[in-house]
Amino acid sequence: MFGQHFFLINTEDALMTQLHPLNAILELLKGNVAAPKLAEAEIFTRALLARTPAEELAEKPTTSWAGMAISLLKYWRERKSAEIKVRVYNPNLDEHGWESTRTVVEVVNDDMPFLVDSTSIAVQNCGLISHLIVHPVLSAQRDAGGHLLSFGAAGTGLGKNESIMHFQLERVTEADALETLRIAVVQCLNDVRACVIDFKAMRDKALAIAAELPQRHSPHAAAVVAEAAEFLSWLAADHFTMLGYREYAAANEGGFEVLKAVPGSGLGMLRADESKLSVRPTASLAARDLPKGDTAELVVLSKTNARSTVHHPGYMDYIGVLTFDASGQAVSEQRFLGMYTSSA
Prior knowledge:
Layout: H1 13-18, H2 21-29, H3 35-49, H4 54-58, H5 62-76, E1 85-89, H6 93-96, E2 103-110, H7 115-125, E3 130-134, E4 137-142, E5 148-153, E6 160-169, H8 175-212, H9 222-236, E7 240-253, E8 256-261, E9 267-268, E10 280-281, E11 299-307, E12 315-324, E13 330-340
Antiparallel strand pairs: 1-2, 2-6, 3-6, 4-5, 4-6, 7-8, 7-9, 7-13, 8-10, 11-12, 12-13
Helix pairs in contact: 2-3, 2-5, 3-5, 7-8, 8-9
């Protein structure tokens, strides 16, 4: 355990300064970690700080880096399967074994795409600036209770790859603001998990719709339908980062035509319980109320008024595929939310 009185500073300061800062940090561990745990602490600290430039390591006291590593290792030791662990705090010696003038956000999660980018978005949305980001990925083996048994480099086959993130931000002192930041990070990581888990299902949905379009009733010419099907297949070929999917259908409630989310259809960021979503007038169904004689587009492309919490902070792209009744009126919509990839 590290605390205000637990660091044994090597008196040969001249020798320590000649060492690479990381070596100096590792050297400091020897006098402050029990022998049975020393090798583990050294491996973790190397992994944690391996990509941090030497100049940056040299800017802070060796005791701060060592205390940070041991504190984070302790936090990582216990984690239940699939748990998203997030803590936001202002380090102090008595409680955390190290201190900093910055606010710290630490995350332990299953390794998956978009984690660092998305956490950065949550931080930015809270009006804060990141001064340091450390992000090792390690392979962890745990027992049934989530206790760490062993770990090594990612991909070594010891266990599942886990992402460990450490952000240092400008100082936040208000307790409410710290909790708001923690909630924002948790929510964004839940969105990331939903998008990653459902990515294949959303991609498969786009391909299934593309295959079905020629068989559906449509007021559009065959060439238009074929072009729409080709477009959806193109999206699924890594040209669109799919973040959400949901189906909507026109219905009559109390004499009013409304648009309702189809129960169980939500995927990714749109996984929410559809029964709790408010109904909307059918005017919100893309191109529902066109002048008589006009035909709604088969595929509607637009931008949402909401920014993404995953991967990139821009406004999300909206792709709606309409279905039609025998009279040619749009009666339902299959909606994708996401962002075009750089290759697109």
